[in-house]
Amino acid sequence: MRRLPFVCSPSSHRLNPVTSMSTGSNSLIWFRKGLRVHDNPALEHACSKASSGSMYPVFVIDPRYMDPDPSAFSPGSSRAGVNRIRFLLESLKDLDSGLKKLGSRLLVLRGEPGDVLVRCLQEWKVKRLCFEYDTDPYYQALDFKVKEYASSVGVEVFSPVSHTLFNPTDIIEKNGGKAPLSYQSFMKIAGEPSCAESELVMSYSSLPPIGDVGSLGVSEVPTLEELGYREDEQAEWTPFRGGESEALKRLNKSISDKAWVANFEKPKGDPSAFLKPATTVLSPYLKKFGCLSSRYFYQCLQRVYKAVKKHTSPPVSLLGQLLWREFFYTTAFGTRNFDKMKGNPVCKQIPWKEDHDMLAAWRDGKTGYPWIDAIMVQLLKWGWMHHLARHSVACFLTRGDLFIHWEQGRDVFERLLIDSDWAINNGNWMWLSCSSFFYQALPPPFYNRIYSPVFFGKKYDPDGKYIRHFLPVLKDMPKQYIYEPWTAPLSVQTKAKCIVGKDYPKPMVMHDAASKECKRKMGEAYALNKKMNGNIGDDDFKDLRRKLETDGESNIRNQRPKLN
């Protein structure tokens, strides 16, 4: 008999679960994101239904995500840098600690997650499977597999929407079956989230006991060393620790300063502030791992706004940043091929250049522009940098200087950022490369606004403290040359113990010429997209690529600034 797929669409808060024909009461709570106890509807449901049975809290370590890959360009697995893996392990350890205080613990298993979950359901006689709904394509495919099996054996599945404030499906339905393509249209459709006035379950007195785990290979949360990593693999580790406890601590510290919350205004802020970042640094806890509930964050912000006379408003306020997250989640969920240029209906078709050497120099912080290189070194070391710093390096790689595909920059961020998130990472790279979403923030022609790799950083940090920290080779360079060391006389370079071209790279391109060439290419690409109404065939795309490569192409790679 052919198995019918279990179709389960999310509701704004909870789903109507498929009811098991069995009278058993064992529940399994499957943690993926949502690594927290507070405001976790899946955990709440598993507890309430396991009052007379057992509850199994499970996290599955996928070797493809966690095992070391010696061939990767930075320490880590094939899919994640070691900073994010460490952050995840810290988050799991903190979750395990929280569960143990309530009489439970986190059961860590290893293997392909779908196969492991099926075995757990079988061996532990689970009658109720609970997990947070996820819109990422990876989890959509994984969840279909698990729910299909659960449905075939009568296991109740409960998968609530709690990673976001809104249900993306609801927003898309309200918009006539299409994802809203601007922040403003999203805001009009979304309205106020259902959690605005609802009471959230923040804690428990105890949790149901864990039953017999049988022959399954259950373990404690492993250490980095147990996964095959070494503490000395990184010269400098991220200062941001993972976990629900740290997330709540950071949140409480941020909202205790009501004036700061009320006056927060993005894109203002200092991208060079690294010892005390000019933002909340809540993104890793909200976006990637769900150590902090977005709904609880929303309620905390609303309480602050009600307590002050005046505050900033979306899209620039802190609440506005939370709603940007919702916008990208909804648009990504409702757009086919959202993570690609080809076949993506919201993305401009632009014949970006392929240059592996240039990409590697940008990725490794060796462009010869200290502002750009310091940012990339911070990313390599910390797995995080200020949003304006991200803007600078993304613009430099794509439409500003190198004209390299945003997908390649996206892949580097996806690997290295501790707050990397599929929807937001892809959305931001399309936006910053002026491939999509740009029209909300930039005056036409949109692509003409370019971040200077010299003057943008100098505006915030004229002494170059940020550069000196992350590029110690330049620590003794006088401040008048710190952003353009190639302009320093050789005697100054010698005194600073940094000879450009020997101790620090020469600039890989001449910014003025490179940015002018990028603008020309963007103009040509925009013209073709407009002419073809976005429906560019393969032949037209190839013709445009040839035209950009031959028509007035300057040899930017060899046009270097004059060195003293």
Automatic annotation (TrEMBL):
It catalyses: (6-4) photoproduct (in DNA) = 2 pyrimidine residues (in DNA). Belongs to the DNA photolyase class-1 family. The record marks W352, W406, W429 as: Electron transfer via tryptophanyl radical. Its EC number is 4.1.99.13. One of its GO terms (biological process) is response to light stimulus. Binds 1 FAD per subunit. Gene3D superfamilies: 1.25.40.80, DNA Cyclobutane Dipyrimidine Photolyase, subunit A, domain 3, HUPs. This is (6-4)DNA photolyase. GO terms for molecular function: DNA (6-4) photolyase activity; nucleotide binding. Coiled coil: none annotated. It comes from Brassica campestris (Field mustard). FAD binds at residues 279-283, 321-328, 419-421. Its cofactor is FAD. It is an enzyme of class 4 (lyase). It comes from the Eukaryota. InterPro entries: Crypto/Photolyase_FAD-like_sf, Crypto/Photolyase_N_sf, Cryptochr/Photolyase_FAD-bd, Cryptochrome/DNA_photolyase_1, DNA_photolyase_N, Rossmann-like_a/b/a_fold. Keywords: FAD, Flavoprotein, Nucleotide-binding. Residues 25-165 form the Photolyase/cryptochrome alpha/beta domain.
